[in-house]
């Protein structure tokens, strides 16, 4: 969750929640701006008691309910129940819980969006028409405005302003997109991807050789 954009987080405004959860423009915890691991930190505090005798987890839950997050609070409870008793790692619940019907967090939204974009680039024409070029540019610019993780969107807007979409053919588009994804990878401290067409085709179109 690294961004160069300033963000409001629970640290200043929600003392009963783990610090660092990113808030949306209405001051609520933003589901698509945080990861499940971030939410799982709520469980970490479950044993600690505050001075008035209530557990910090129950205070957290009350706060979550006030922010339209009651479902998440319940889910966290279930995650805890289904995670291995021997594990003290709150993120281990990821393995146990089926989240296929949950709203996306920032990681699953990101993976799905990159999958759509790289696959679209892989099938983009080698000789696009003027209409193809302008429509795909519109799509990328629209994405940078409407991407639901707003601080990710702002960084992406800046990045594509500095590096306008290269869409004059399939290979240029694939490489350009790979570089944009690498900009985010770098920001998040993830390994950079090899942007050769051979490697991109293998990952996003052809699969490994037999
Ligand atoms: P992802 O980064 O989602 O990658 C999915 C797969 O793509 C990888 O497994 C790999 O096989 C392949 N891949 C990786 N790099 C490349 C590449 N350069 N070219 C081609 N294929 C590649 N998250 C934040 O926390 N902060 C942000 O500011 C942020 N900004 C984002 C902006 C956009 C436009 C998008 C779409 C997502 C953004 N995300 C951001 C989400 C983030 O990029 C990841 O999607 C998320 O962290 C999940 O990462 P992952 O490790 O599962 O793999």
Automatic annotation (TrEMBL):
Residues 79-88 have a biased composition (Low complexity). Keywords: Disulfide bond, FAD, Flavoprotein, Mitochondrion, Oxidoreductase. SUPFAM superfamilies: FAD-dependent thiol oxidase. The keyword Mitochondrion applies. Gene3D superfamilies: 4.10.320.60, ERV/ALR sulfhydryl oxidase domain (1.20.120.310). It is found in: Mitochondrion intermembrane space. Residues 1-24, 79-106 are annotated as: Disordered. GO terms for molecular function: flavin adenine dinucleotide binding; flavin-dependent sulfhydryl oxidase activity. It catalyses: 2 R'C(R)SH + O2 = R'C(R)S-S(R)CR' + H2O2. One of its GO terms (cellular component) is mitochondrial intermembrane space. Residues 5-15 have a biased composition (Basic and acidic residues). It is an enzyme of class 1 (oxidoreductase). Its EC number is 1.8.3.2. It comes from the Eukaryota. Its cofactor is FAD. Signal peptide: none annotated. Pfam families: Evr1_Alr. Residues 102-204 form the ERV/ALR sulfhydryl oxidase domain. This is Sulfhydryl oxidase. Its main location: mitochondrion.
């Amino acid at each position: 969750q690294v961004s160069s954009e300033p963000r409001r987080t629970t640290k200043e405004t929600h003392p009963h929640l783990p610090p660092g959860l990113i808030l949306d423009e209405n001051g609520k915890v933003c589901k698509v701006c945080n990861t499940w691991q971030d939410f799982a930190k709520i469980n970490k505090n479950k044993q600690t008691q505050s001075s008035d005798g209530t557990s910090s987890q129950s205070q957290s839950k009350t706060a979550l309910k006030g922010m339209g997050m009651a479902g998440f609070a319940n889910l966290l409870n279930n995650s805890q129940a289904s995670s291995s008793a021997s594990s003290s790692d709150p993120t281990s619940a990821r393995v146990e819980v089926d989240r296929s019907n949950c709203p996306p967090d920032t990681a699953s939204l990101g993976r799905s969006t990159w999958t759509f974009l790289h696959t679209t680039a892989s099938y983009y024409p080698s000789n696009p028409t003027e209409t193809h070029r302008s429509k795909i540019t519109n799509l990328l610019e629209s994405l940078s405005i409407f991407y639901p993780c707003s601080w990710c969107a702002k960084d992406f807007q800046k990045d594509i302003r500095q590096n306008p979409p290269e869409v004059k053919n399939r290979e240029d588009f694939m490489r350009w997109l790979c570089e944009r994804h690498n900009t985010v990878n770098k920001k998040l401290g993830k390994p950079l991807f090899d942007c050769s067409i051979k490697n991109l085709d293998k990952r996003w179109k052809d699969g490994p050789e037999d």
